[in-house]
TrEMBL record:
It is found in: Nucleus. Pfam families: RNA_pol_A_bac, RNA_pol_L. InterPro entries: DNA-dir_RNA_pol_30-40kDasu_CS (IPR001514), DNA-dir_RNA_pol_insert (IPR011262), DNA-dir_RNA_pol_RpoA/D/Rpb3 (IPR011263), RBP11-like (IPR036603), RNAP_Rpo3/Rpb3/RPAC1 (IPR022842), RNApol_insert_sf (IPR036643), Rpo3/RPB3_RNA_Pol_subunit (IPR050518). It comes from Blepharisma stoltei. GO terms for biological process: transcription by RNA polymerase II. This is DNA-directed RNA polymerase II subunit RPB3. Residues 21-298 form the DNA-directed RNA polymerase RpoA/D/Rpb3-type domain. One of its GO terms (molecular function) is DNA binding.
Length: 306
């Protein structure tokens, strides 16, 4: 088994990438590595988020703690988070330009009606840290609403952290993977023992449209990665074969077989807006590699002490 693992050649293939999402295939690794990468993306890739909130005035209908919580969950663009220290590593006693970016939220409704206070009302208190700002390019993020003569005055610090400490620092909205499907079609039996109508039944049994009939009414796999392992196609094939038989069909005799490739995984990662999706994956690989290097350095001393 160890020789099998040594012979693998890890590889990553980008299938689709947009401003918010990335879909890629990771191959040549064990499921433990794939899951480690997923967990690192969720919990250990650092971002910036509002962490310390000082409320000077609040006459709105929301409690101080509720407003602080909503401020913390506003995603902040954190592509330059490497320029900032973790608060625990900074030598300052409170906050400084090396570990924090300060914002001010000061709004008063003097016009009447209802005034929306959004992420675009957050203002930097200094020129430093302009690279850290709310990720609201698709529209302002609502924080609270003010009626006439209500006001809010808040000073808050954005600091660096990771998802293990609090979910507000997690850079992903979704990070999942699945095994790559492997579908076998016994074309010889399908053509000789199944009618065109029966082959159509198998095609229509798939809820996500993995199969289609070609011009010769033969089944083709057209959307392999859409397969969600429901095995409806396998059951439909079994039902058609055993319609006139009383014995149950052996799974290896089925005309359709769905299995999983154990060293090939399809990842889907959706960014919260704090980091670009490709940056999340790249930083996760860097962090995971460093962890493995640290373990590698610890092993020889342990062996020598035996």
């Amino acid at each position: 088994m160890s020789e099998v693992y040594r012979g693998r050649a890890p590889n990553i293939e980008i299938n689709k990438i947009t401003r918010e999402k990335i879909k890629f295939t990771l191959s040549g690794v064990d499921s433990s590595v794939a899951n480690s990468l997923r967990r690192v993306m969720i919990a250990e890739v650092p971002t910036m988020a509002i962490d310390v909130v000082h409320i000077h005035t609040n006459t709105s209908s929301l409690h101080d703690e509720f407003i602080a919580h909503r401020l913390g969950l506003i995603p902040l663009i954190s592509e330059n988070q490497d320029n900032y220290d973790f608060p625990r590593d900074c030598k300052c006693t409170g906050h400084c330009e090396h570990c924090a970016v300060q914002f001010r939220l000061k709004v008063k409704n003097q016009e009447g009606g209802v005034l929306d206070v959004t992420s675009r009302d957050l203002r930097h208190l200094s020129q430093q840290g302009n690279d850290v700002r709310p990720a609201d390019s698709d529209g302002p993020i609502l924080i609270l609403k003010l009626r006439k003569n209500q006001e809010i005055d808040i000073t808050c610090n954005a600091r660096k952290g990771i998802g293990k400490e609090h979910a507000k620092w997690s850079p992903v909205a979704t990070a999942v993977f699945k095994y790559t499907p492997d579908i076998y079609l016994n074309q010889q039996r399908l053509e000789s023992q199944f009618t065109a109508e029966e082959r159509k039944e198998i095609v229509n049994s798939c809820p996500v449209g993995v199969y289609k009939l070609n011009e010769e009414s033969n089944i083709e796999v057209v959307k392999l990665n859409k397969c969600m392992f429901c095995e409806e196609c396998m059951r439909k094939g079994e039902m058609i074969i055993t319609r006139s038989a009383s014995a149950l069909l052996n799974v290896h005799d089925n005309v359709v077989r769905v299995s999983q490739l154990k060293d090939r995984f399809i990842f889907k990662v959706e960014s919260s807006g704090a980091l670009k999706p490709e940056s999340i994956v790249s930083k996760a690989f860097t962090i995971l590699t460093k962890k493995l290097d640290d373990i590698k350095q610890l092993i020889p001393p342990l062996i020598n002490t035996r």
